[in-house]
Amino acid sequence: MALFTPHPPPPTKVGIYRRLSASAGVHVSPLQLGAMSIGDKWSSFMGSMDKESSFKLLDAYFDAGGNFIDTANSYQEETSEMFIGEWAEKRGIRDQVHDQL
């Protein structure tokens, strides 16, 4: 019996994390999810993504091993960040997901 159980392999290459920078202790996925389209405030000129669709996208990204999301409070008049925060809170993974630092 091993003292430590090895960590299971990631489901996809998105889950092969790398250090964000030499001075950061954060390890992130090599593919960052852009969250500019998550939300429903810019529907008149950019389209929209409701909460249910946003959660499905975020679930697929996280299930593939992704943990690095590009957000900004200017995206979709802050609904992007609100949807992402609510999604992470509901799934209990706030400490496993990083936004753009």
Write a structural description.
This protein is an alpha/beta fold and about 100 residues long. Helices cover about 30% and strands about 10% of the residues. The protein has three helices and five strands. The strands form two sheets. Strands 3-4-5 form a three-stranded parallel β-sheet, with no helix packed on it. Strands 1-2 form a two-stranded antiparallel sheet. Helix 3 links the parallel strand 4 (about 70) and strand 5 (about 100). It is elongated and about 55 Å long. Keywords: NADP. This is Aryl-alcohol dehydrogenase. InterPro entries: AKR_Detox_Biosynth (IPR050523), NAD(P)_OxRdtase_dom_sf (IPR036812), NADP_OxRdtase_dom (IPR023210). Pfam families: Aldo_ket_red.
Fill in the keyword field for this structure.
single chain, about 100 residues, alpha/beta, three-stranded parallel sheet, two-stranded antiparallel sheet, 3 helices, 5 strands, about 10% strand
Helix tally equals 3
Task: Report low-confidence residues grouped into runs of 5 or more.
Answer: none
| Secondary-structure class | alpha/beta
Tell me the strand percentage band.
5-15%
Largest sheet: 3 strands, parallel
> SSE string, helix = H, strand = E?
EEEHHEHE
Average pLDDT, to the nearest integer?
Answer: 91
Oligomeric composition of the shown chains: single chain
Task: Count every beta strand, where a strand is a DSSP E run of 2 or more residues.
Answer: 5
Strand order of the largest sheet: 3-4-5
Radius of gyration: 15 Å
Distance between the first and last residues' Cα? 40 Å
Helix coverage percent: 25-40%
What is the global morphology? elongated
Family: Belongs to the aldo/keto reductase family. Aldo/keto reductase 2 subfamily.
Domain NADP-dependent oxidoreductase: 30-97
Keywords: NADP
Protein name: Aryl-alcohol dehydrogenase
